[in-house]
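hey m, so remember when u said the C-alpha cells were messed up on ur end? i reran from scratch. heres the input so u can diff it against urs
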Amino acid sequence: MTNKQIAYAFDDLAKLMELHEEDDFRVKSYKNAYLTLRKIEPPLSEMQDAEIKSIKGVGTAIAGKIRELVTGGTMASLEKYKADTPPGVVEMLEINGFGPKKIRVVWRDMGIESVGELWYACNENRLIEYTGFGLKTQEDLRLKLEYYFKSRDKLHIDAALAASGQIQEFLKAVLPDLKIESVGALRRLCPVVDQIELLAIDESGRLDLLSSPDFTWSKIKDNTYHFESENLPKAIIYTCESSEWGSKLFKHTGSADFLNAFILKHSGIDFKHLPTEIEVFEKIGLSYIEPELRELLPDDFPFAKLDSLSLAQNNQLPDLLVESDIRGLLHVHTTWSDGLHSLKDMCAYAKALGYEYIGITDHSQAAFYANGLKPDRVLAQMAEIDALNTEMAPFRILKGIESDILNDGSLDYDDDLLAKFDFVIASVHTNLKMSSEKATERILKAIGNPYTTILGHPTSRLLLSREGYPLDWKAIFDACQAHNVAIELNANPYRLDLDWTLIQEALKRGIKICINPDAHSKEGLLHVKYGLMAARKGGLTKEGYFYI
C-alpha cells in the first residue's frame, strides 16, 4: 500500500469512530495520523517498526495498525467499524461536506441507511424537523447528493490513465505481443472518464480463450469483451484485425456527435478496412485531427468553440501546445505554507526537470488553515529567494503569492506589499456558496486589482466532488481582457480549472492561459502534464500560453 492509501485508511477509521461516538481523543489521534502519514515521503512499507514509531504522533497502537495495512492490506479495527455500519451509511461519508455528526442524525434518528433514501428524504422536506438541519442545509445537501449521483463510478484522468496502463500490463502478461491502446473518452483526454475502453488486435480468436487468475474475462458480443479485476475499474475491450486497426481506432475514439457529423459530411465513403488512422483522413483529403480534438460542443454553446472538422477541411487546425513549449512552472507551494517540501527542494527539482524558472506562490495570510504568510514572513521568504537565485543561476526563482480573494473581492495584502511580488495569483478558497451575482462581483473586483496577474482556479471546482463557483463568464472574460489578466488552467487532475471548453473564448479575446501545477510537493510539479492534456483538448497554442 502507498503512504496515501495507508493515510486514508486512518481517515476512514476516524470518521467511522466519530460516527459511532467513540472517544474524542482517539478520533483526533487517527485524524492526526492521516494528516501526518500522507506527508511522509519514504514508503512506510519499507520502514522498520522502530522507524515508524519514531514518526511524530505515531505511537505503538498506530504503528501496529500501519503494520497490519502494510502486511495484509487491511486493518482489523477499520473492518470492525465497517461491519457495524450499514454499507449505505458508510457510503454517505463519501459525500463532500456531509460529516459524521450529521450522518449520525439521519441514520440513528431518522432510520435512513442509504444515499437514495437520503435524497428522497430531502425531496420530502423530512430533514428540516431535526436538529442541525434547516431548509437551507437540506437544500444544500440535496444538491450535493445529486452531484454525487452524477459523479459516481467515474474516474479522474490520472486514475483512468493509470488503470488503463495496468489493464494493458495484465493482458500483455498473458499475450506479450498483443497490440492494444486506449480509446474512447480517455484517448480524447477528457478530464473525467465514465468507462475504460481499449482496442486490441486479435487475428485468430486468441482472446476468446484468454484466462488468468489475475482477472475475469468474458465475451459480451462479437469483437467485444469485458475485463474485471480486484482493485481496478471494469473495462471494455474491442477487438479487430490488423487490416482494420486504423478504422476501428477512429471509430472508437471520437465522441458520438463528432462521429455523426463526420459520417454525415462524408457519407458513402467506406472507412472499414484501413490499417492506420492517417489513411482515414487521407481518404477524404482532411488534415489529421488529434484525438483530443474529436469533440463537438452543442450548437447553443454560448462561447467560441473549435470546429475541428471544418478546420481540418481547410487545413487550418491549430498547432497545439506541446510539452517543450512550457519553459517554467508557476503556482508552487513550499513548507513556508502547506507544501511538503522546502523552497530549495522544490526549486532544485524543477531545475532538474529541465525548466528555466519556477514561481513560488505560498498561501497568503487569510489562509490561516494553510499556514498562510504574514507580511514579515513574506519578506523573509523573499530574502531566501534572493539567496537561492544567486546560488542557482541561470535558473530563475520568481517571487509570487497565491493571494486569497477576500469576501469583498479585495486581495489579502496592502498595495505596498503586493507591489514587491513578481506576480500575483488571485484565488478563491472560502465562502463558495455565494449567488452567481455576488460571486461574479467578487471575482471582478479581484481581476480589476492592478496587482493581479493571474486568476487562479477560477471556479474552485473539485471534479467528482464539488461543482464550480457559479460565474457570469461573459463578465469574467470582459474583465480579464480589459485588465490584461491571464486565467489559470489549474493542472491538478482533481481541478483542471479553467475547463477546456472555455479556452477558445479566452484565445479569441487575447486572454492568455497559464498551465499551473498547483504543486504542494515535488511530485506535484509533474501534474503539469494533465494541464497540458486539458489545454490541448481546448485547442491551446503556444501563442495563447502565458509566460513570464
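this time it looks ok to me. The mean pLDDT is 93. if urs says something different then somethings off w ur setup not the seq
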